[in-house]
Structures are given as structure tokens and as C-alpha cells.
# Entry
Amino acid sequence: MNDIKKDNFLSIYKSEFSSIGKINDNGQKALAFYKQTPFPTTKTEAWKDTDLTEIFTEKLSDAPFFDLDESFFQNFEMPKAEMLRLVFVNGHFSNALSDTNEACDSLVIKDLDSAIGSNESEINQYFGKTNINEQNNFTALNTAFAKNGSFISVKKNKEINKLIHLIYLTDGRKNSAFSQIRNLIVIGENSKASILESYVSLSNSRIVSNAVSEIFMKSGSNLEFYRYQVENENDYLITNTRIEQGANSHLQQYIFSMSGKLIRNDVQVNINGEGSTNQTNGLSLADKTQHFDNSIQLIHSKPNCESKQLFKSLIDNEATCVFNGKVYVAQDAQKTNAMQSNKNILLTETATAHSKPQLEIYADDVSCSHGSTTGQIDNEALFYMQARGLGKQQARALLLFAFATEVADSIKNKAVKEWIENLIDKRLRGRNIIRECKHVFFK
Amino acid sequence: MELLKIENLHANINSKEILKGLNLTVNAGEVHAIMGPNGSGKSTLASVLAGRETFEVTDGKVSYQGKDLLEMSPEVRAREGIFLAFQYPVEIPGVSITNFMKAAVGEVRKHRGLPELKPAEFLKLMKEKKKLVEMTDNLAGRSVNEGFSGGEKKRNEVFQMAMLEPTLKILDETDSGLDIDALRIVASGVNALKSADTAAIVITHYQRLLDYIIPDVVHVLYNGKIVKTGGKELALELEEKGYDWIINDLK
Ligand SMILES: Nc1ncnc2c1ncn2[C@@H]1O[C@H](COP(=O)(O)OP(=O)(O)O)[C@@H](O)[C@H]1O
Ligand SMILES: [Mg+2]
# Structure
């Protein structure tokens, strides 16, 4: 039975490895892994609340490349910041939409496919080195056949002031299609950067997107990493991310899942050096029958590090949100300070939240806490606001906005913070509180 | 002029009758004090007037400025000039006092046919009213009531009252838990809002507040009804003798 599912994807590619798949024969190994590993089902512990069955029910084609001209972005709501941008359409690089002209020699920003030729030594040094290739069937499939993605490499001791915006557009052009993206990001020693990823669907046909990212943060580096996911109602987005944090590195990571049929984000952060900090936040705004799942693993291997997680969801109609968060503290990781919090608001009786915060601690001198709450909107607060003249809808919107934007409070980049708060506000407006948001990304 | 007229008001919570035929008339320009033992129904009366839906009105009439108050939603009552300073103000995490008041003042002005305030005008109004209750800028920037001390919460209630310029002010034990300085600030805030067109209902346990806010009429609410009404000297008498003499008279 599993084979049919696997063949579904394999038949898209006819076993032709992409140039990414050809790097150090990674594709061959990944394909062998793929062939012998079944897809997860709801019997698999890490997938018990997320059912993938529907992904396999329809035959998918290879999402085609097509170009859009630059006027396309006139309708985009962009952060008001100076930006460098890479744009991909259905996993293919769009030269016309990208803008890297102002890139300085402090960094390399280009599509991964061309970087294989031009930045060979770095690719060899880092690609696949987080062991993500054979993490699961999706990462294996991606390793063998993904055609392109972003390559960002910040040199040592550099601060990149411009916002790096990576935009992944999908459009099946009326066909059900499969699209893959493969990213490699290296932040050099003592360097600093802000990266925004936008996953945006343009079509109403079914798109299954499979994105894999590897991020290396060298010692003393600083990264703000924001992910904005706004897919259409028929779309599936599966992301797998590995982040390696060196000593004294500081990561602030935000995942905003705004719409889509099913989104699954698997993130694993390995904190491999002392004195590092990690903030990983997530916001899911789900309505109708949408299903968003964040599976986060934070692995503390070294002492004197700190990690904080805040995941929140607003869940309307029959939607479901899942949070699986594990903080693992190795025996060596003394003086670890770890906090994990998951808060959900169910807006209807048919909305569902699954929450599983977990701590696995092998060191004895640590300070770790975790908590999870799932509740309804605070009626006392609603009445209080009404008693000051606010309409019920307005009071609700204000309460929900306040709840949601806490996730973004710690964002340092002002332009991104304003941008995302505005998008959250838009998403929360409308008759159904969480409204149809097919075009939320647009003005 | 008659501002509020309550006739034979009955109200339930969870099918338990709390207000049992209450009558009260408040004219413009007056200050009424309502006193009475705990559990008499004072907060229930305040909640019913503000429009809280958990209380079910089973009988009686309430007219406010000649209109049927019970027909109005809570927000319309607020826009029409009814303000309740809550006995237990709720915390609203993530919503700053400034943003909250911006929204509230906007709605109230719209309803009253007044032009929208320009940002500078709004800030000026905030500044003026903060000064009235001696509220710090720091407090105004914080989330509504979140982590506030009891006194700060009460001060915030009076501040909001000043911002919204209500016609009928209802203060539910705004004095409880205040030290004497805070009490004076709160009381002078309330007095500053006094006018010939507005009225106040001050629910309190203590005579001391009435030293600052001088009532025209004092009522005793007991077991869901007004059982005694008098002038300001009634409050002094209650302070001295408690409620037992009134309750015993009823038997
Ligand atoms: N939410 C509620 N559920 C059940 N009973 C309530 C509720 N609120 C108030 N009551 C009851 O109603 C009565 C009157 O309460 P309240 O109006 O708060 O009195 P007061 O303000 O005079 O102290 C009390 O017996 C109280 O227990
Ligand atoms: Mg009370």
C-alpha cells in the first residue's frame, strides 16, 4: 500500500536526480532510504494528530515553471524595509522577480542550483551536513529531486542591514501539482542577518509543497528568521528545517501559519555551543477545516544556553492545530535555561487543539519549565470592553489581535514587525473573525 | 429632570432571584449612594444596568433618558452615556490602555455625532484626564489592568470614566481597598465630573468616601430591594449603628 504512495511521487521524476540530488551522490542515498521507508501514518507517534492520507489520493504533476513580470509585486504587501530578494515559482528560480543587485561582497545570495557551480567548496562543506537528507520520506524526496532553492552565505564579521526576503510562490495552473524547495543558509562567525521567508500560493488547484532548509549559525552569529505561510485552501505545505547553532549564537525564529489546508512544520535546532540563546515562536490562525501542525525539537548539548518557545493558535470552525514541542537537555548541558509555552484559543466547540509540550532532561543543574493552556475567549474581558462602548465584534477582534501578536512582540526588525502585525490584523477581520484569506497577502 | 427610573426590577442569576422588586429614581444633577450588607444585590444592580447578559431580568422596567434601557446592548448603553466603574476590573493582556481608550472614545463620539479626534487631540485628552487621577505615563502604556495593584485598577476605572464623559456614572465599591490618598484622588476625579446634566450612583460600604463625594440621597439595599432611603445623614447613622436596626425593623 505504501508503495503506491511512494510511486506517486517517484513517477513525477522518473528517477532523474536534480543537480542538487547529484551533490556527492546524496540523491542516490536518499532515494534508497525513501524506497525502504514507509510514509508516516497516524500510527506513527510524531504524526498521530496529522493525517496525510489525502495527499496521496490524487496524482500530482511536476509544478511547472512560468515567469511573472515585475509588476506582479505591485500588488504585494511588502515590509517597508530595504530588501534583497530571491523569488521562486513552483520551486524554479525566477530571475525576473528576484532582486539581488544591491548585494554587497559581505554575502552570497543566489539560487542553490547556480551556487553548486560557483560556490562548490561551501556547498560541499555544508550541504546535507545536518543529516536532514534521510530524516524522513519528505526530506529524502527533496534531497534527490528538488530542483532549486535559496543559497545564502554571510561572510565573517559582517552585519547585513538589508532584509533578505525569500519568496516561494506556487501555482498549479489548474493542475494538482508537487513543488519542492531546498535551502542552505550559512551565517558566518560574528555576523548578523535578518531573513524572511514567504510561502505564498497563487492558485486554487491543489499544490503540495515540500520545503527543506538547513541553517548553520557559526559562533557569535545572530539571526532573525521569520516564516510567513499563506497557502490556499487546497494546499499542503510540509517543511523540514534543521538549524545548527554554534557557541554564543543568537537565533530568533518566528513561524506564522496563516492559511492552507494542511501545514506541517518540523523544526529541529541543535544548540552545539555554549552561551547561545534561542527564541522560537509560532502563531497559527486556522479556520474552516484547516490543519496546522508545528513539531519543534530543541536539543541542548552544551552548558549555559537558553531557549524560549512561545506557540499560540487561534482556532475557528472545525479547524485543528497541533503543537508538539520537545526540549532535550543532554547530560553535559548544565545551567540550561529552557522555557516552553503553548496557548490555544478555541473559537467554536468544534475547533480542536492538540498540545504536547515535553521536557527530556539528563542534566541536574537546569531551570526548565513548560506549560500549555487551551481555552475560550474571555467573556469577562469582552463584557468589560463592551461596557466601554466597543461593539462585540470589535472587542473580539481587539482581544484576538492582542493574543496573537504576543508572538511577534520580540521581533527586533521594526519593518517586519509592523508588516506582520498588519497581516495578522487583516486575517482577523471580517464576518467570521478569521476570514477567508485567499488574498490576505495582497493589498 | 428624570435620568433613570427603575420600577419593580426583578433579576435572576442561574434561576436564583437576586433583585426582588427594586425601585429607584435618579434625577440629573444628583448623587445617590447605595449601601447595604454584602450579598444584598448591589453589584447585581450595577451589572443589570450595564447590560451583563448573565443576569436575566424577569420583571420590571428601566427607563434611561426616557428610553427603554433593557432593550439596549451593553455597548449602546455605554455610548448613550452609562458608565460602570467595576468592583473587580478585568485584566486584558496585550491591549494597552491607550489603544483601548482610542477605540472606546472613537465609538462613543461616533454615536454621539461628534467628529473623530485627531491623534494630537486624543493625546491631549489623555494627558488631561491622566492628570485628573494622577495616573503615570508608564501605567497608561501598559496592558489594561494587567498586573495592576487594587488601587491602580480603581484609578484606571475613574480615568476611563473621565475619558468617556458619561451621563450616568455607577461606581461599584470604587473605594474598597484604597488608602486615604488614593481615595482622595479618586473622589476628586469623580467630583470634577459632576455637573447639572449628569448623575452618579455610588455603591459603597463606607461613610468615609461620602465625606468626599457628598450624596444627595442615601439608599439601603437589602435582599434585592431598596428598604430605606434618606439624606446624607443616613450614611452617618449606618456607620454608627450598622444595618441590623433596619433589617430588624423589616421583620
Ligand atoms: N455569578 C454568580 N453566580 C451565582 N450567584 C451569584 C453570582 N453573582 C452574584 N451572585 C449572588 O448574588 C447575590 C448578590 O450578589 P452581589 O450583587 O454581588 O451583592 P453585593 O454587591 O451587594 O455584595 C449574592 O448572594 C451572590 O452570591
Ligand atoms: Mg458588590
Observations:
- The interface with chain A takes residues 50-53, 73-75, 77-79, 83-84, 86, 89-95, 99-100, 103-104, 107-108, 111, 143, 160, 164 of chain B (CB under 8 Å).
- The two ends of chain B are 35 Å apart (CA to CA).
- Residues 134 and 213 of chain B are 18 Å apart (CA to CA).
